[in-house]
Each structure stands twice: as C-alpha cells, then as structure tokens.
Amino acid sequence: MRAAAGAAALALSAACGASLPTSSEAAAAETADAVCSLLRAWNNEIGDVVNATSQAVTDDDDPATANAVLADGFERLVGVAEARRAQLDTLDLPASRDREALLDELRAGADESIAILEDELDDVAELAPITVERQAGALGGAFVTVEGALAVIEPRAEAYSPELRAAFAGDEGCRHVVQPT
How far apart are CA 35 and CA 102, in angstroms? Predict the structure, then answer.
C-alpha cells in the first residue's frame, strides 16, 4: 500500500512538472531574498531622507537656510549609506559559488555610493543660495545624484550563476534593486 501511495505521489509530481529545489537553488533563493531585502530597505530609507529634505527646503522657502538644509540632508544620506555598508560586513548569506563575488560587488557598490554622496555634499557647500526660483534645479540635481548613488549598489544579475539569476528574476522584491540580465 505504501509503495502504491509513493508511486502515485511520484507520478502526480512528475505529471505536474513540480520538483523540489536543489540545494543550490534553495541557497540562491535565500541569497536573493536577503540581498534584495537589504537593498529595498536601503532604497526606502534613502527615499525617506530625500523626501524629508526636499519638503524642508520647499516648505521653508528661505535662501538663507536652504543650503544648510540640503547639506544636512546629504549628511544624513551619507550616514544611511555608511550604516548599510556596515551591514554588508555581517550579511549572512548561504554558502554558494556566488557568495564571495556578490558580497564583494555589494561592498564595492556601497563604497562607491558613499563616495558619490560625499562628493555631492562637497558640491552643495559650493552652491549659490537656493532661492525659490533655484529650488527645482538644486533639488533636481540632488535627485539625480541620489539615483546614481542607488544605481551603483545594484548587483548585476548577469555576473552570477544561472540559479542566482533565476532567483533574482523570480523574487518580486528584487525588482528595482538588481540590474537584470
């Protein structure tokens, strides 16, 4: 009876095309989830700081304080990036052939992101006073810089194993935080 039940279950799973994930597929799925969760949180936190900074600049409409508000926003952005970079040093990913290369890419991207934000902070110090008329340009430039700082932290899926590429592609949470193949 058990043999018949086992054979029926095997036939049913084969008929449905279902299969259990291999250990490398499971590790890839766990890796994609961990990496994309961290990157989504990073994006969200950066977005919150950008929105708060933009709101403060436009609400105050004060050229005497706008530059300092924008500089403070970039200091906070650098702090967020540094904190997220530190998380990469303790990110626990499962053993896989992609693990070290992915961590190296993430760390290098985070370092580059920090450098981009620090460069913009230096540039903000050089801006002429941000008048109401100049707000759109100053904030637009800040947004472009932030987009660049976020783009460099996105891992390139094409550089990794077919299992990890499939895991990135199949994980809804990886959209917009991983460069697709």
Answer: 9
What is the pTM (predicted TM-score) of this model?
Answer: 0.84
- Average the pLDDT over each of 7-11, 61-65, 164-168 and give the range with the smallest value: 7-11
- Cα torsion for 134, 139, 140, 144, to the nearest 10°? 150
Question: Cα separation of 164 and 26, whole Å?
Answer: 10
Residue with tokens 């530190």: 86
Which of 124, 34, 115, 37 has the alpha carbon at shortest distance from 74?
124
Mean pLDDT of 61-81: 95
Domain locations in the chain?
A: 25-174
Residue, of 8 and 29, whose pLDDT is higher: 29
